[in-house]
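#struct-pred
JK: can someone run the complex with magnesium ion? inputs below
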Amino acid sequence: MKDTPVMELRGATKSFPGVRALNDVSVEVRRHEVLGLIGENGAGKSTLLKVLCGLQRLDSGSLLLRGSEAVFQGVADANRNGVAMVFQEQSLLENITVAENVLLGNEGPSLRCGLYRWRDLNRRAQKYLDLVGGSLRAATPTGRLPFAKRQMVEVAKALASGERGHHEPVILLDEPTSVLEHAEMETLFSIVRELRERASVVFVSHRMEEVLAICDRVYVMRDGGVAGECRPADVTTDQLFSMMVGQDLGAGYYHESDQRPAQSRPRLELGDLTGETFHDVSLTIAHGEVVSLMGVQESGREDVARAVFGAVPVRSGTITLDGRRIRPRSPAHAVRAGIGYVPAERKVDGAVLGMDVRENLTLAHPGQVSRGPLLDPARERHTVGEWIEDLRVRTPSQHTPMRDLSGGNQQKVVLAKWLLDPELRVLVLDTPTRGLDVGAKADVYALIRRLAARGLAVLLLADTLDEGIAMSHRVLTMKDGRITGEFTSGAGARPQRTDVLERMV
Amino acid sequence: MATTSQTPPEARTGTEGTSRFRRLHEAGAAPFFVLAALVVAVGAYDSSFFRAASLISLLEQAAPLTLLAIGEALVVLTGRIDLSNAGLASLAGVVLAHGLGSWGPAAVALVVVGAALCGTLIGVIHTTTQVPSFIITLGFLGMFAGLSLSASRADSILVTDGYGSIEWIFFRIFGLPISYLLVLVAALALMAWMKALPIGRRVRAIGLNERAAAYSGIRTRGIVIAVFTASAALAGLAAVFQVARLQSAGATTSDALLLPAIAAVIVGGTAISGGIGGVGRTLCGALVIALLRVGLDLVGINAAFQPILYGAIVIMAIAATADRRRGATVA
Amino acid sequence: MKPTLAPAGHHDPRATGRGADEPARPGRAALGSHTFPTPALSVLALIALVMSFVNPSFLSPGNLGAVAEQSAVPAVLAVGLTFVILMGGIDLSLEGTMAAASLTTALLVANDRNTIDLGLWAIAAGCAVGALIGLVAGAAVGLLRVPSFIVTIGTWQIGLGVAQLLFGDTPPRVTDESFRALADHKTAGLPGIVWIALLVVAAGWTLQRYTRFGRYAYVIGGSEETALLSGIPVRAYRAAAFVLAGATAGLAAAMATARSGVGDVGIGTGLLFTTIAGVVIGGTFLTGGRGGVLHSLVGVVVMVAIANAMVLAGVSSYIQQTVQGVVVVTAASLTLWRARRRLRVIK
Amino acid sequence: AVDSGSAAGDSGRCEPSDVTLVQSGRGLENEYYVAVNAGARAFAKAHHARHYQWIASNGDSSKQLSQIQSILAKGGKCVVLNVDPNESSVLPAIVKAVDKSGAWLVTQWNRPDGLAPESESPHWVAHMSVDGVPQGYETAKALFTSMGGKGSIVALQGILDNAPAQERFRGLKKALKEYPGIKLLGDQTAGWDRTKAQNVTQTYLTKYGHRIGGVWAASDSMGLGALGAVKNAGRKGKVKIASVDGLAEVVRAVRDPSTGYVATTPSTGAAQGALGMSIGYAAATGRIDPDKEPRGHRSFYLKPLPIITRANASSAPSPTDTTRLDFKNPWSQNGRPIK
Ligand SMILES: Nc1ncnc2c1ncn2[C@@H]1O[C@H](COP(=O)(O)OP(=O)(O)OP(=O)(O)O)[C@@H](O)[C@H]1O
Ligand SMILES: Nc1ncnc2c1ncn2[C@@H]1O[C@H](COP(=O)(O)OP(=O)(O)OP(=O)(O)O)[C@@H](O)[C@H]1O
Ligand SMILES: [Mg+2]
Ligand SMILES: [Mg+2]
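RT: done, structure tokens with the ligand placed:
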């Protein structure tokens, strides 16, 4: 009995239109272990977890729970069987209290005769909140919590959901650390270690050190399959990395050899830019330069990017573009000044999923496919076709709705939307590779290089430290809304990760 | 008001088998089938309905309603609603009836432009205060009602002088009603406009995902103001048609067209959450509603049963024409 | 008409950055949060202030009683409607539902048209008719997945039709004096319907705060997806909200019938405007998830107070509607002003 | 002013058996229209009309016009329409449609100034109305007398853009001039609506308190609303009420001295339904030639009837009573012509 895995996937396959997210995957989760899951973006980690927690059903293959085959009817059903998940995207409701969120759908004993007993509810929720630490109070309205605290609430919620069943729970954590500060991360680790005593944990992270530090066993995923299994004691980060990306990509991953030196002429200059979440931010990006802005979640770097694009108000300071001062009061102004912006939330802010590829591609600069004021369908077909070919967008046709494209291809279309404009001067990229698979990611990197070579100034908010360091000419770090450091990062002379990290936290 | 949410991924897979049906549905064919079914149903009870006179009369009756519905459709395409356009049509009618005598044909232009300006005002207030359009236009509905009552001095106005300059709208040419031909021309112009100019996509993009539209550099605010302006201008035009048709104007003449116009938009298959639909199918939706308004009388249904049937048919028609592509459109 | 606020997963730091671990300052918290209808109360205070100059009799006990009495019926309507709106839907059918319920009630108490006399059970029957019409709407929204906006335009007509069928030749006149006394009889200076309305509001508030239905209304309005993920039967709750709205409309119709003494097809005329405007002015978002029964109550009282103030101030009948429209727009702007933000999507 | 191209002058009159009778009004949830329908139906029955139809406009002018146009498109010349226009502004279009199709139209109550059957079309056979001025005047006088000729009143108006509402109010004003001891404290519209009238009256009662000695309402339903408010204020019987229309409930209230309800007018609904039909029918079947009828037969007020007070309330007929209607002579109830 001791050796029966708590959960097991056998030959699991799951496809989405255009993507095989899981391809004949067999994994097992053993009792009282912390199982690590690593892999590039889009390797299928989240999909695997979603299958485990009943959110998605397998196309083929089987799911075994405590030795017997199981089909979950949904997340709530999985919860009842002791499986709970913290989602990659947060799923807390802002308009109810923390306690309600923690026990959502699980209020059971706190209802008597159909009536909520708030004190009891709060007490029960507080139990889980105390477990995760962070001095969270059950009665607080969730909307008042900062982002990182919500992540802790998510964990508390998963704990609560996992304990609905009569078995030892299985807790699935999908990148719980990506938005946590150092201290909170430590707390989380101690929770996870403590959880191991009475539960099984699956832990997904992009940070290999973390995985090595906390996990008992690690699966490496690549392109929907399991590329390897190992014990942290036996491997190094480098070994893990090469298992993750595959041998062939190795050096060429960031296309570092394509990096051209930037010109000295400044293209975009920010002078003491101050907004609600950032202060006195000054930076200069030259023609053809890629500058990456690094920082943790609340560092204010996203708002700096949005301010350049006119999406958040600026209190004081200047934005100068090619020597001319601009005051973007809305994205529309910024676009007309020659700025493009790829938002982090692709599905919410980047693409109009209900429209087709062609319409999305020409949405920002319809002038490029028009004759006079009229859209020119022939020219549009031609131009869009060229871009699709150029960026290797995999789409059945130009009229395929964006919704049906894979994430990477959606991202390419969103990028192409800006590239359509030959006058584009500045491109602001907010984690442009988030959610992209390996190939797409490499394509995007190559594209950024090409754009820079064209003289474009690129402000990059990289997803990972490595990406930021590898892709840029210069790395700037931000903390608490201020610039805290600057590193030059030319080809062959990259700054140390630890140095950069030091300025960020 | 309509909330759309992504269906959980599993719920989507079942719908692939019926793809041809779906493609027809997505192309906006459903409202035409509903219209055809209704025409056949009324005709089956009363074959004289198929006579040219009856059908042409139906088109003529549908003209002002169609104008209001088209304007409403533009607003609904952005995911908003205009509850004030029918009230504005009443007000514009009163003003026109007063103005025709002294201004002649110029009054027509003045009224349409004036109405358009009212729409601009609504749009500006809505986008500036960020109060939902439902409430802003509800408030304006009250204002327009009050103003038209004052402007008409609570009396209906018979148009005598200057009636000639609009009377021709309800003449017929080669047996075809000029009024409906004009509506068709306006609709076709709008359709061409929406198709050939970037604005059509921008309007739909705002309805589908306003944030993404804004992040694409679209002046969402300007476009929202523009659709309210267009809706109001069409309301002004509808007022011209009403005065031409009635030869007089009263303070509340067009008020009752509000809900039928909204129903026409939705029966036409435009999603109330925005982004899906358009002008062409609204023409069809307006005919469905116009037919329903008189069809039950033609068939000879007892007056008391008529509202029940009307309500039930509208719900069923919309269930048939609703486009649920974007997941569960509820609320 | 969906004001998508910051989408799930995307968090505006300004909305969340402050007050990580606020020390409990209940007063401030209540004023600054969405849990208390502060802006609507300020609007009410403003009206009172203006009227204390224009016509001080506005604040006389007699007139306040009149405002309370006139608020009673729309307040009951607002309670049910609030839950529909909290879930992100809307119910436009109130007037039709009230018509059907009014005639049902009048025909089932002692009346001059038939010999049926169910006594106070007639009220229950009125509620049941309302609930049934609500069920039609709820089922259509839940099962057919048709937007409630249009479904309830349909059920409005259905309710009117049912009422017309029941009407016959003359309005059924209620002869049961105890039924009428329910509305008129004064206890502690306030007529019965005010007490009934207060009871309904209290019940609604309890429902909102202490039951699954009420709490899940916020969850569904906050994010239907999260609700589905948590295994909440969203469609059933949605349908239940329409049934509740129908039932309260039925009760409101019974109250109005008791007040006027006849079953009347036009019993709800004009109440849709008052109620919806009241709910929104109170601070319940049409997108759902925010607001509550108390908010709606205050909003409805604002609407009634405006109508009352205009009569007292002697505003000409000709411009009353205009003034009311201006007030609705202004009040809604005041209530929602602090939520304004660049690139905020409000439909 | 209505466009010609009229079908007038064609000799083809209809056989009685071919005639379709159509009565159009707001809706049967309203007692007045129930009476109109009863009168029209009684006429149809008495003449074995092939077809009688009631169509409801539900307060929607466009719908009313559409319904009429559709029926005309279908039924042609032998349609007799007795129409209460939803508001006067739809009337020109209705006349035009009838004129073009050669059918026969009689209208009630509302018409825009400057439009009259005698000058428009033979197919618009007649327009009849009930003179609101004497109604308002007589009921107001009864009210003032019951108050002893002095004191203050408030007035509830009907929908403001409605001719009878305005006429009745003019009647009230006329009476006020003759009773200098009576003061009009205020007037508000309650839109013919009972609940609204109750609310407005309640507010007036708190505003003016005991100064209010009487309420005059432009319609009975509003009068009943006022009665409710007066009762709740504990002033039943002390505040006198008078209104217009002859609803059964009001007639009952007038009979009961404790209510303080002093007067109303007899219902004219059944007469308007039956007379309208009989005039249109006479024209359709060729019994009369509209062009040859005198002006007083084309646009006229019904003969004013004595108002109902406590003295005669017990003998007042039911509004839907059709037994006293005279179908022989369509002009039997003609009062003074409308100017
Ligand atoms: N609902 C869906 N519809 C279509 N494609 C999907 C869906 N969910 C995931 N995919 C695709 O499946 C692949 C695997 O996605 P998954 O989310 O599992 O990746 P991941 O390993 O979690 O990546 P990340 O590190 O970015 O979270 C991706 O290519 C993704 O675009
Ligand atoms: N409807 C609600 N919305 C938001 N928070 C709520 C709500 N109801 C309760 N809470 C939160 O839950 C906490 C406890 O509620 P409650 O008032 O029942 O507790 P209590 O007063 O301590 O208990 P009791 O009155 O039973 O002794 C409150 O402080 C409040 O913050
Ligand atoms: Mg993932
Ligand atoms: Mg307590």
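RT: quick notes.
Chain C has one domain: 29-336.
Confidence is low (pLDDT under 50) at residues 1-32 of chain C.
JK: thanks, will look after standup
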